Amino acid sequence: MQHTLSYHIICLQKDFVRFCNTRLGEMGLSRGLLFFLIYIGKHPGCSHTALSRALGMDTGHTTRSIAKLVETGFAIREPNPSDRRGLVLHLTPKGEETFHKIYELFVEWDELVFGHLASQQREDLTLLLDEVLTRRLESHPGLFEPDHSGLEQDELQPQHLL
Predict the structure, then answer these.
(1) CB under 8 Å to 32, separation ≥6 — which residues?
(2) How far apart are CA 69 and CA 4, in angstroms?
(3) Would you state the pLDDT for residue 145?
(4) Mean pLDDT of the chain
(5) How many Cα atoms occupy the beta-carbon half-sphere of 97 within 13 Å?
(6) Cβ distance 42 to 102 under 8 Å?
(7) What are the tens digits of pLDDT across the range 55-113?
(8) What is the pLDDT at residue 151?
(9) Is residue 28 within 8 Å of residue 38, measured between CB atoms?
(10) Residue 27's closest CA among 103, 105, 98, 99?
């Protein structure tokens, strides 16, 4: 009997989580902070509010996550130059270095998992998965909007992942 797509996705997701937990731990970063660091890296000078909205997280969770990034030396909070009452977020040199390593980490996992496939097979698979996701999003426009019922990092909006 052939396995379902959901079976394959769950197996690959578990493998990716294990891989990330190991590699991120070596960098001193947890998977829970991963997408916060990515978003700040892609949007230097963003506000807490913009970060919360983009990742679909409540402000309390975002505030705690930012505090951890600041405490561990990955990010800094600075006064907003256009509104001194607000703060903006930037990565530190350590955060910038980690931000670039994260992309390499994703590429490394892709190669580990799909490296045995021919170039055309990888391209075909990626195009098919893109089409499946695009159709799913078109038929369910609010699919990745937060429901605020205890969101997990795995439920992030795909356009913010890299």
Answers:
(1) 65, 153
(2) 38
(3) 59
(4) 86
(5) 8
(6) no
(7) 888 899 999 999 999 999 999 999 988 887 889 999 999 999 999 999 899 899 999 99
(8) 36
(9) no
(10) 98
